[in-house]
Amino acid sequence: MRKLLNIVIAFMLLLTPSIQNDEVSNHSPSLVYFGTEVDDGCDNETREDNEPYFVAGNQGNDSNLGTEDCPFATIGKAAESITDGDTVIISHGIYRESVSIEGIDEVTFKAAEGAKVVIDGSRDIEEDLGGEWKEYQNGIYRTNVSQNAWQLFVDLEEMVPARWPNANFTDGSVFNRSLSWAEGSMDRDKYKDEDGNWVYPYENGELIDITGLNESGFDPTGAIAILNVGSFKTWSRNITEFDTENNSFKYDIVPAWKEKHHAYFLEGKLELIDSPGEWFFDNKNNTIYFLPPEGLNLSEANIRAKTQAYGFSSDNGDNVTLENIDFFANTFRFNKCNNCTVDGSHLLYPSTSKRSLNIAGEDTEERWVSRFDGSLGCIVENSVFMHTDGSALEMTDGEHIVRNNYFYFIDWSVSDLRSSMYSIFLGFNDNEFSHNTMHKLGASATLNPGKVSTVSYNDVSDTGHLQTDGAVVQMHEAQQTGSEISYNWIHDTVKYGIRMDGPGLANGDGRNATVHHNVLWNVRGGLMVKGDYHTAHNNTVFGEDHDKNNIIVLFDSEFGNENSTTEFNAADRIAAHRSGTYEDHPV
Q: What is the pLDDT of residues 272-300, one digit of tens each?
C-alpha cells in the first residue's frame, strides 16, 4: 500500500514544480510552459475571440489578456474571463486556488499537452498559515493558524485525527474493525424477560461499552462518536452524557437503529492524542495540536493542512469538461450541470468529513465529497480516487457513465453517507458503471447503480470492512427491472457479491434483473437472487463461502423466484436458501 501511495504522490506532486517557483531551467524539457519575459510586449497584445485562454502560473500575470504569449497566472482569472464555448489551457504547475464558474456552457479546462497540473487544497503550516510550533506537553506540540484546518499532512501523507481506539493509515488498521473500533454490549449480552421475550440492554441514543472505555480514564462527554448502530448505516454524534457506573454514554438518536452489531470509535477531543502521528484541531481558538512521529523535526518537515473542500465548482452550466486536472487535498463539485465530464484526473485525499471542525451529524447534501448534484448525463473516466473519508463519488439524477477509473482506500469512517450508505452512489436511472478497479473500501455496500443500470467489466475486491450486512453490487427492489450486471470479477470480500433485494412486489419492483457471465470467488454468498422474473446465467462462483451458499436463488416463506430463470451457472453450492442444502431447498 505505501509503495502504491508513494508512486501516485510522486506522479501527482513531487515531479510538479510549484507555481511559486520562478526557476524553470532545470525542469524536464518535455514540460510545457507559456509566457514571455516581463516587458516583452504584453501591453500591446491582442486576443482573437475564438482563441483559447492560457494559464502559466508565475510565468503569467493576471493583468495579461490570457493569450499563449501573455498568459494569466491563475486558473481563477481565466474562469472570470471565459464565456460560453471557451477553452482554458493550463501550464505545468501546482495551483493553490479554488476555481468557481456559474452559468457558463460548453467550456473546457485542460492541462497543456505534456503538462502536469495539480489544484492543491492544502497550505504550509508556517509559510501560508503563519504557524509556529511550540511544545505543549507529553511530546505534543501546538501552533495557531490563520484558517480552519481539517486534515494534516506530513510529506504529503495524512496524519490520523486523534481517536480511541487508536488506528493509523500506514498499516491499514483504520479498516480493521476488530482492532480499531470499540463495541457495545448489544451483541454479547442477551437479555430475556420472564416470558422469554428479548429485552435489550439499552435503546437508541445510548450505548453500553464492553471494550474498556471506563478503564481508559477518558471522559468522552463532548467527544464525537462514530456509531455503527444501524447495521449497514453509521452516523456521527456528539456525546452528551457519560455514566461511569454503567460504562455507558448518551447521544442524540440516529434515524435507523438496530438491536445488533454495535461498534463505534471516538474523535474530537484533545485528550485523545496519545499515539505518534495523531493530531487535533481546536476550532474555537484555531489551534492545531500534534504528536509528531518519532524522529520528525517540525522545523524542517513539510507539514501542510487542508483548508478548502473544493478546487473546482461549476453551477448551472452544461457541457463543462475537466481534462487531466489533478487534485490534492480537495476535489470537484458540479451542480445542475448536464453532460459534464471529468477525464484523466488523479485525486488524492479528495473527500473529507467535517468532524475535525467539531461538526457531527453532517447533512448528506452538504458532504465534502466528489459530486454531481441535480445533473444528467455526466461522465467520469480514466481517473483515480484515493484515500477518502466519505464516499468516493456521488452522482444524482442519472444517465451517467463511470468508466475506466481506479478507486482505492475509500472511506475509513463510513459515517453520514447518502441513502443506504455506499462507496459510490449513482442516482435515478440508466447509469453505466464499467471497466473500473476498486479495492480497500469501508462501506458495507460498495455500489448503488440506480435503476435500469449497466454494471460490467469491473474488478472489485477487499470491500465492506466497517459495517455489517451489504453487498458489492446492491440493487434495491425499485432498481432491478432492466438492470444488467455482467462480466465482473468480484472477489475476496466478506460481503455478498451481487445482491437483488426482495421480495418481488405487486407493483413489479424486485423483478426482471439480468445477471450473467460474472466470476466471483472468496465472497460471502456470490449471487443473491431475491424477488422474481430474474435471469441469472453463466455465472461462476467458487472459493471460501463464509457459510453461505455460492448462488442463492431465494424461495423465502414459500415465495420468490417461481418465474426466474437460472441456467449454465457453476458453483459448489446452489440452493433456494442462504445456507441450507439443495436437497432441502432446491432451486
A: 999 999 999 999 999 999 999 999 999 89
- Give the dihedral of Cα atoms 468, 470, 472, 474; nearest 10 deg: -160
> What is the Cα 430 distance to its own chain's centre?
22
Does this model's pTM top 0.90? My answer is yes
Radius of gyration of the chain (CA): 26
pLDDT, mean over the chain = 91
Q: How many CB atoms lie within 10 A of CB 88?
A: 23
Per-residue model confidence (pLDDT) at position 502: 75
CB-based burial, 232-261: b 16+ in 10 Å, e otherwise: bbbbbbbbeebeeeebbbbbeebeebbeeb
Q: What percent of the chain has pLDDT over 90?
A: 80
DSSP state of 503: P
Cite the beta strand spans of 74-127 per DSSP E: 87-90, 93-95, 99-102, 108-111, 117-120, 122-124
Cα(515)–Cα(518) distance, integer angstroms: 7
Asked if residue 165 has a cis previous peptide bond (ω within 30° of 0), the answer is yes
- The per-residue pLDDT for range 539-582, each reduced to its tens digit, is 999 997 678 899 999 987 778 889 999 999 999 999 999 999 99
In one-letter notation, the amino acid at residue 137 is Q
**Residue 123: CB partners within 8 Å, gap ≥ 6?**
96, 129, 147, 304, 305, 307
Residue 36 has pLDDT above 70, yes or no: no
SS3 568: coil
- Residue 287, judged by CB atoms within 10 A of its CB (0-12, 13-18, 19+), counts as middle
Which residues neighbour 421 within 8 Å (Cβ) at sequence distance 6 or greater? 232, 233, 234, 414, 443, 444, 445, 467
Residues 94-126 pLDDT 10s? 999 999 999 999 999 999 999 999 999 999 999
Q: What is the DSSP string of 411-422?
A: -SS--S-STT-E
Cα–Cα dist 158/181, whole Å: 20
> Which residues 6+ apart lie within 8 Å of 89 measured at CB?
34, 52, 53, 54, 55, 110, 111, 112
Look up cell 440493487; give the residue.
475
Q: Is the dihedral of CA 562, 564, 570, 572 positive or negative?
A: negative
Flag whether pLDDT at 6 surpasses 80.
no
pLDDT in tens, 58-93: 999 999 999 999 999 999 999 999 999 999 999 999
3-state DSSP assignment of residue 129: coil
CB-side neighbour CA atoms (13 Å) of 562: 7
What are the C-alpha distances in Å from 355 to residues 224, 364, 381, 474?
8, 13, 30, 28
Say what the pLDDT of residue 2 is: 45
Tell me whether strands 310-315 and 331-335 are parallel, antiparallel or unpaired.
Answer: parallel
Query: Left, alpha or beta for 120 (phi > 0: left; psi -120 to 50: alpha)?
Result: beta
pLDDT score of 30 more than 60: no
